[in-house]
């Protein structure tokens, strides 16, 4: 028996299939959306887990702070003199050259001495003549001695003047001095510099012939501002660093000029021994340290800027809390700090644990892990 379906039955079956398909698809997409939302929620939670920063810390305590004054200066020889001849003539011998080290009393150079030898010989002859006349006149007055202390002063002066005896004595002293002055002798030990004349050139009396520098000890001249006067004293130790040498020298303050100059500075000099590497005129950096007791001292790395103000980070229960501070003293590596007096919330006390490293990216309430404790 054959069953025949009516033509109207086909559209109903098709509609039923489409409706079933839509229901199943809706359920599938809803399930996928819920799964995706759950995954995104997990990702967001993982993304915003608080980051912990590894930091270095130290415990604050009252200690001495080495206050440091820094200035630039120049070294000069403690003894530096122009050496010259007292008479004029041609240079006959030159026994040294620039850079030579000479000892006190060493012969440096000689002038031609012929005319000065002649003057001395003539002065000796003139003195002998005057002496005979002097003795004759004394004998005529009944005095048989030439000792000055044994002759009445008025008589001695009158006889010596009339016979030319006193003038002859003076000429002899002058002639001896001039002859001696043709030889240039080192007045102290040191190095020779600034020789300009050559052998056989004429040398003028009183003109600088050479410079003698005692470079065993140098003075360093530098300036401090007047507000720093109270931080320096005679014999205070100083550290001296030549710009041209990677070396630090120790010295002490030798003089403090009591006059304040127009620009509000004072001249200070320090003495430093030469190890053979220092040279006249070298430029120096001078550091003066003064101990200031009972200060809270931190390395410079501990102080950072937040809101354009200086802060320190303290560690409390694993978190970093900033506190506003003021730096009261400074040297090349450290600060002396106090809690900022204008910030009521700022506190800083001995025993506080403060962060000295790893603090550049910290914020208030940042969680931290202590790397090490100094």
Automatic annotation (TrEMBL):
Any Pfam family hit: BSH_RND
Signal peptide location: 1-37
Residues of the Multidrug resistance protein MdtA-like barrel-sandwich hybrid domain: 82-210
Gene Ontology MF: a single term: efflux transmembrane transporter activity
Gene3D superfamilies: 2.40.30.170, 2.40.420.20, 2.40.50.100, Helix hairpin bin
Entry's family note: Belongs to the membrane fusion protein (MFP) (TC 8.A.1) family.
Protein name, entry field: Cation efflux system protein
């Amino acid at each position: 028996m054959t069953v025949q379906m009516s033509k109207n039955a086909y559209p109903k079956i098709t509609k039923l299939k489409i409706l079933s398909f839509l229901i199943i698809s809706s359920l599938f997409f809803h399930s996928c959306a819920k799964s995706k939302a759950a995954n995104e929620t997990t990702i967001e939670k993982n993304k915003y887990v608080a980051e912990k920063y590894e930091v270095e810390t130290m415990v604050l305590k009252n200690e001495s702070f080495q206050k440091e004054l820094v200035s630039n200066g120049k070294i000069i020889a403690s003894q530096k003199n122009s050496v010259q001849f007292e008479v004029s003539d041609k240079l006959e011998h030159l026994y040294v050259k620039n850079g030579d080290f000479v000892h006190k009393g060493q012969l440096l150079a000689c002038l031609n001495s012929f005319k000065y030898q002649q003057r001395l010989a003539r002065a000796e002859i003139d003195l002998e003549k005057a002496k005979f006349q002097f003795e004759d006149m004394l004998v005529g007055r009944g005095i048989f001695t030439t000792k000055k202390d044994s002759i009445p002063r008025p008589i001695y002066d009158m006889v010596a003047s009339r016979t030319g005896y006193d003038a002859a004595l003076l000429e002899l002293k002058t002639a001896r001095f001039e002859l001696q002055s043709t030889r240039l002798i080192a007045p102290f030990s040191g190095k020779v510099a600034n020789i300009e004349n050559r052998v056989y050139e004429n040398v003028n009396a009183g003109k600088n012939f050479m410079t003698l520098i005692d470079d065993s000890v140098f003075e360093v001249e530098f300036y401090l501002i007047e507000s720093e006067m109270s931080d320096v004293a005679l014999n205070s130790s100083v550290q001296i660093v030549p710009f041209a040498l990677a070396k630090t020298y120790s010295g002490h303050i030798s003089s403090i000029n009591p006059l304040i100059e127009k620009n509000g500075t004072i001249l200070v000099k320090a003495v430093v021994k030469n190890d053979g590497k220092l040279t006249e005129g070298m430029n120096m950096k001078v550091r003066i340290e003064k101990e200031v007791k009972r200060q809270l001292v931190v390395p410079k790395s501990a102080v950072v800027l937040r809101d354009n103000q200086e802060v320190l980070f303290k560690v409390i229960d694993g978190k970093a809390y900033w506190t506003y501070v003021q730096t009261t003293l400074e040297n090349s590596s450290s600060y002396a700090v106090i809690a900022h007096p204008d910030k009521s919330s700022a506190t800083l006390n001995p025993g506080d644990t403060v962060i000295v490293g790893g603090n550049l990216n910290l914020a208030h309430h940042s969680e931290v892990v202590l790397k090490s404790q100094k």
